[in-house]
Amino acid sequence: MTEPLLRIEDLRIGFTHRGGTTNVVRGVSLEVGPGESVGLVGESGSGKSLSCRSIIRLMPARAEIRARRVEFEGRDVLALTDAQLRAHRSHNVGMIFQDPFGCFDPTKRVGEQVAETLRVNAGMDRAAAHSRTLELLDGVNIDRPEQRYRSYPHELSGGMRQRVMIAMAISANPKLLIADEPTTALDVTTQAQILDLIQELRRQSGMAVLLVSHDFGVIAQACDRVVVMYGGYVVEAGPVGEVCARPQHPYTRALLESIPNLESAGHRVRREGIPGQPPNPAELTTGCPFVDRCRLVQPECANVDMSLIAVAEQHVTACPFVNEHRSAVTLKGSS
Amino acid sequence: MSDQPLLQVRGLSKRFALRRSVSEWVHHQSGDEHLAVHNVSFELARGEILGLAGGSGSGKTTLARMIIRLIEPDAGEIILEGQNVRAAGGKELREMRRRMQMVFQDPFSSLNPRLSVGSAILEAGRVHHQPGSDDGDAFVARLLGLVRLSPTLASRHPRELSGGQRQRVAIARALAVGPEILIADEAVSALDVSIQTQLLNLILDLRDELGLAVLFVAHQLSVIAEVADRVAVMHLGEIVEIGPVAEVFHSPKAEYTRSLLAAHPRPFALADAPEEVNIRETH
Amino acid sequence: MSDTTLRASSPLRRFVPRRLHNWELSAGLFVVGLLVTVAVLAPYLAPYPPNQINILAALQSPSWHHWMGTDFVGRDVFSRVLYGLRIDMLVVAVITYLGLIIGVVIGTVAGYIGGWVDAVVGRIADTVIAFPFIVLVLAVVAIVGPGLKGVAIGIIIAGWALYSRVARSEMLALREQPFMMATKALGYSHLRAIFRHALPNLVRTSLVYSTVDVVVNMLVLAGMSYLGLGQQAPGADLGSIVASGQGYLLSAWWITTIPGVVLMLFGIGVSLIGDGITRGDLVQATP
To answer: Strand B7-17's sheet: what is its strand order?
Structure first.
């Protein structure tokens, strides 16, 4: 079994403030293997974005990270020096964000900004950086790269900006690309193109991808494995097809059922949302964070420690009542 | 029930002028123009939910805003139950706007941060002298009930609420003036998936309970599929296809509609037309 | 495997009690609060009437009888400082916030209406701002005549324009916010949209700026009084007390220096408050 590229064990992230500490990530463990594509799905307050940022230690001011392990290729990320961290952030891991505008300097041309990354991280000289930038822009399917090189960020469409951001992120050939809601701000056609691009880049370079999204459809299409987060915990993880067909956690199940679907067109059947709203991290205490909204809640839920239980090959869940659920719930498609 | 549609839009157009270069200005030429909406026509019947789909730049938001003249159309007609909306002014326009209320996309900025929920809703009711608005508490409680929120939320401010709650408050504020049409401009797009579905169900309920007609603008076809009776697909400012939602999605005629459907993330095994999941009562 | 604890924030943090994390605001409020209280209670705290002359006790250095000494005609400096502070604070508060109100209303309305109204108002404001502040105040004083009234009117005329500009640019941004568009969709009158919805949201920036403005105005007022154009004798405010002690700078330093220190304390206190408010705005925990 190959060594995982990224290994996170028992990650906890909290914010200190006047009243104490608010724990937003409460014990998250996940792994990404080399070349693998893992999706991280969750709603507001699940802690998915923060968890990803801890991989490159891009944390907001008052955040505190504690973990048993945050290792990249066996090296402890949390112990890196500043210089090592810079190298880690360029050569090991690339990250792209939801808001493609916010990452650019509006006063500089986009080509310049990519070239600058190359000069700083790969030590290239101007000419080499320029031509490599053109290669990269071409590689992310931007047409007329010479012309686009000279464009300013506001002159590009959202999809185009996202492509340039991807070009910047992969410029140093990272082994892992973290994509934090990369398509949320884009319309459906552009979204499909960006996801295809990421797949293409994966094929070419063997890069692993950690894709964060609140959209299960995006993850189902683009990822091999999925990790479902809720209230700062991982509640389920497994191969994407398996989790979608046989979800083992009440939250995953409810989430899948609540997703609007094209097939509903014309049918007058109402789809159930999940009642209530995603939890406020400041108000959570012990036990399963889904208790207020779970259809299958039981008194013991308040004492659940959210450790992951295996239910099938590579498929884990944090709900210990899963065996009772299996017999109690008739799932579509199962015997 | 009269068979005249509640709202008719005919030939609506809007062009945005881009900046002219100096030489264009000197020579009195108009510069580049962006044709945001071009010759759009459709009808909305009482109690109907019409979806307005399209990607960014399709003109759907501009169109929605033109109907209530937040943006002034350049050409075309807007007829609300036989009356000309474009020709109206002053009091007449206010009354027409009262009948067609809008809910915006961003739950964080569509409510005045300084007003409590109750104040915002009550103000709307009072400005239009809605029945029951003199009894502040009861009026607000009734409207919060319509959007399935507890009356205790009346004293809270928007920053204390979640995105889904804020959208419900925005809907309540819109309902407070007694509209017949609700224009939802990407009203659920900024919400978490499970909350989106709650809001969609709320809109369906409001249509059933109040007979509201809804113009539902969204870029996600799946969302429109869940809530709309008919759908109009827009591309580059024009309606390329319009019809019953099942028909348009299962047998699309326009090429753009087909490409939109093809680009949609494929549905996966579980999420077909929902069937009942049998659950044993928990002890 | 042992726990790895990483603090992303300053390592000294744990040694500072939580209460003091916004020390600027606390310190500023304390200093200004103290000065305001003292000024308000001046009639009760002043041991002597401020204008009581006692030639025999002239030019005495600070002592138990006269905490801040006496000036050249034997008036108790401490009492004069207390009353002077009172006048200064009152006048400065009134003129700053009158200027704020006038400026914010004009700017908000101009920004809301747009078009030529906005353009005209903008040009007027720009002209006023372009004038050196003191020169404009002096010009007004020259017309109205020396005295607090002249200085007050001068400062308001010179001061409203900056608030107007700030409010106007905020209004331009605010206009695009959905809740402002909603006021149009809901059929609210323009008056209601401006005064009930826009203004309350615009005021914060101006209020923060006003803390700076208060200090500036205080110094301008003191300066005018120092020049003899502000508070006229026999009444005294801090500026005129400083002026009166000029001739005795080396012998009776307390007459000039102590009111100057009080002015300085006031300025520091108000600045700290401004810093504290700004700091409070910036602190956010992001999920």
So the answer is: B33-44, B7-17, B75-80, B83-84
The number of beta carbons lying within 10 Å of the beta carbon of residue A147 is 11
Quick one: which of C258, C228, C246, C266 has its CA closest to C36?
C266
CB pairs under 8 A between A and C: 48
d(CA A194, CA A203): 14
CA distance C175 to C103: 18
Mean pLDDT of A158-183: 89
Which residues does residue A211 pair with via DSSP β-bridges, in sequence order? A39, A179
Tell me the C-alpha to C-alpha distance, in Å, between residue A196 and each of A34, A141, A161, C128, C224: 19, 11, 16, 58, 71
Cα separations in angstroms, B190 against A1, B167, C36, C115: 41, 10, 48, 33
What is the nearest CA distance from B104 to chain C, expressed in angstroms?
Answer: 7
pLDDT tens per residue across span C169-200: 999 999 989 999 999 999 999 999 999 999 99
Q: Dihedral sign for Cα B112, A183, A178, B269, please.
A: positive
User: Which partners does chain A have (≥3 C-beta pairs < 8 Å)?
Assistant: B, C
pLDDT tens readout for residues A3-12: 889 999 999 9
The structure tokens listed for A320 are 């210990």
Closest-CA residue of chain C to B91: C187
Tokens 């009542």, located at residue: A321
Number of other residues whose CB lies within 10 A of the CB of residue A46: 31
* Residue C70 DSSP one-character state: B
Which 3 state secondary structure label does DSSP give A78? helix
A238: left (phi over 0), alpha (psi -120 to 50) or beta: left
* pLDDT beyond 60 at B270: no
User: Which residues of chain B lie closer than 8 angstroms to A183, CB-CB?
Assistant: none
**Residue C243, SS3?**
helix
CA distance B60 to B186: 10
Other chains touching B, judged by 3 or more CB pairs under 8 Å = A, C
pTM strictly above 0.90: no
Across the interface, which of B101, B109, B123 has its CB nearest the CB of C179?
B109
Q: Which residues pair with A225 in a beta bridge?
A: A38, A239
Cross-chain CB nearest to B55 (options A43, A189, A216): A189
How far is Cα B156 from Cα B162, in angstroms, rounded to an integer?
11
Q: Which residue of C has its CA nearest to A10?
A: C3
**Which one, of C130, C52, C39, C146, lies nearest residue C90 by Cα?**
C39
Q: Residue A311: helix, strand or coil by DSSP?
A: strand
